[in-house]
Amino acid sequence: MTNPSAASHVYVGSARSGSGTVGGIFRQTVGDDRWTQLTNGLPEITQVQAIAVHPTNPDVVYLGTRSGPYRTADRGEHWERLGLPDGTEIWSILVHPANPRILYAGTSPVGVYRSDDGGDSWRRLPNAVQPERVKMKSFTCRVMRLVADPARPEELYAALEVGGVMRSLDGGETWDDCSSDLLKLAELPQLKSKIDSDTDIEGMLDGHAVCVSAAKPGTVFLAVRMGLFESADRGSTWRSMEIGRFSSLTYGRDILVSPSNPRHLYACLSPAARSKDGSLYRSQDLGETWTRFDHGVKAGSTMMAVALHRRDPDQVYCVSRGGQVFGTQDGGRTWAEHHLPEGVQDVYAIACG
Questions:
Q1: For 9-352, which CATH class?
Q2: In the chain, what are the domain boundaries?
Q3: CA–CA gap between residue 204 and residue 221 (Å, rounded)
Q4: Which of 10, 87, 194, 225 could crosslink 206 through cysteines, CB 3.0-4.6 Å?
């Protein structure tokens, strides 16, 4: 095991699910049980949906909130709002893998902004739109995850809740809809799902996370309500990864590629968006097989997100919707559980660095 740096931190972001609940950004120093709510420079009511730690300078952290994007240069001691129009809800943030001065932010309603100067200024990418195939009754479609192909960093993918997948091959200037094959899969009886709309294609277009591995060029991995799916042709066609062969929990909430081994994937699986169970699975062969990774963990709610440390592959963290944070610092051999402060009930994001 690599000794974790004294400066390593875990960040967790939550929204407010009702009166009496707490939203915001919370930080814990690795090796310390205490959580600190970070508030300096943030609105009195902060609802956090996305967190991104700078890939080479962990002092710099970006937040996506319902009040817009924020940045810190001192690990959350002070925050500044970045220059997007008031009222812009940010649901995802991507730091360009080859040039960290370039950032992308995904919004609700669906949109993507790009910054070329580390977040000081932004422009909306006019072609980042998607056909509205599903009209949700309780929320507006949003860009839940943005990712770049590490081998071709101008190739971007976006997972939309609820809107499928879209792709850009030119750094965000133009976008293609990659959802037609997801619609074909939605014709299968086992992949039909309707909860908050009038159409049973809803489940297959309920995109939560997408990732790309340098170990398999052109291959895209997707987590949606109906499970985990793979495209071998840059999002043109999709197949089920049949996660049900390995897990009784098949609702896919997050999927990430390990920064230290591109053949390793991690996925958060649960019964549903709001449930009383959840787990973290790992594949060591790019999704061909999966095993449960969070040994001994008992999540009391949906497992929402996973965080992987860039410099220490033994550090892995995951978080449940209800505020349980689980972490290992020895590659999964042992796990610790840390509860977020009282009142934190609707967690969306976790990051570390």
A1: mainly beta
A2: 9-352
A3: 14
A4: 225
